[in-house]
Every structure is written in C-alpha cells, then in structure tokens.
Amino acid sequence: MTRTRRTATVLAAAVALLAGGAATPAVAQPAAAAAATSCYGGAESLTYHYSASAVEFGTYTTSSRCSDINIKLNTTASGVFLDACIVFVDHTSLCNHDNTYSTFGPQWATVATDVKDGTRFTLRVHAYDTDAQVVPFQLAY
C-alpha cells in the first residue's frame, strides 16, 4: 500500500508540473537571430524614384527594436544599387561617415551602427547609376 501511495504522489506532482507549463521548454532562437527578425520585421517599405540630386526620406526616430539603421533593396534586377547615408538631424545636416555615401544592394546592410534609441534621422539616397529608376527598398531602424 505504501508503494502505491508513493507512486500516486509522484504522479500527482508530475501532473502539477505539467499543468504549470514546466513540461517541455520552448526552443529558443539564438539571440542575434531573434533580434534581427524583430528588427527587420518592423521595416518600412519605401520607394526611390530616380533624381539627379539626392532624395531624403524621413524624419524617423530610432527605437529599441534595432541597434543599427539598416537598408535592403527589394529588386530582382541585376546591377541595381543605391547610394545612401544617414543624417542625424538634431546634430548636423551632413551625412554620417565623414559626409560620404555607401552603396547598397539587395541584402540587408547597415547604414549606421550603434545608434541610440530616440535618435532622429533622415535617410539620404541617390542613384548609383541610371539603372536605378524606380527602386523599392526597406528601412529598418
């Protein structure tokens, strides 16, 4: 009889643990992958239309969703790139990285790194060449 009571007690404890959600731990994504998914998941879709001069998008304000400002061109056309930079509007009217543009393509890439939450900025874009007539892209910040 004692053995049956002990088994019943162990089973009752196991059922209580299962009911409390301690059964199977969830499989967690690596921290970097989860952060990237959350950052890119909130990306804004924008479209660049060719212009001889630079085009500005924004003013935007960074959040805790991303620690960087990222861009990705959404085009399947080969050879289409955009030159872009970030202007931190509360501090300057010039582009980051010593007032230079960087060239971006169809993969996620960082335009500005380690940007504090609450920072106001614009994205300044110009065509890499005349192939960039109408270019949809995403901005994650």
Summarize the structure in short.
The protein is built from three helices and eight strands; from the N terminus they run H-H-E-E-E-E-H-E-E-E-E. It is an alpha+beta fold and 141 residues long.
Question: What does this 3D model show about the protein?
Answer:
The model is unreliable at 1-29 (pLDDT under 50). With 141 residues, the protein is of the alpha+beta class. The strands form two sheets. Strands 1-8-3-6 form a four-stranded antiparallel beta sheet, covered by helices on one side. The N and C termini lie far apart (65 Å). Helices cover 23% and strands 33% of the residues. The protein has helices at 2-19, 31-41, 96-99; strands at 44-49, 55-61, 69-73, 82-87, 102-104, 109-112, 120-127, 134-140. It has three helices and eight strands, in the order ααββββαββββ.
Please give the structural blueprint.
Blueprint: H1 2-19, H2 31-41, E1 44-49, E2 55-61, E3 69-73, E4 82-87, H3 96-99, E5 102-104, E6 109-112, E7 120-127, E8 134-140
Antiparallel strand pairs: 1-8, 2-7, 3-6, 3-8, 4-5, 4-7
Observed structural traits:
8 strands, alpha+beta, four-stranded antiparallel sheet, 3 helices, globular, 141 residues, disordered N terminus
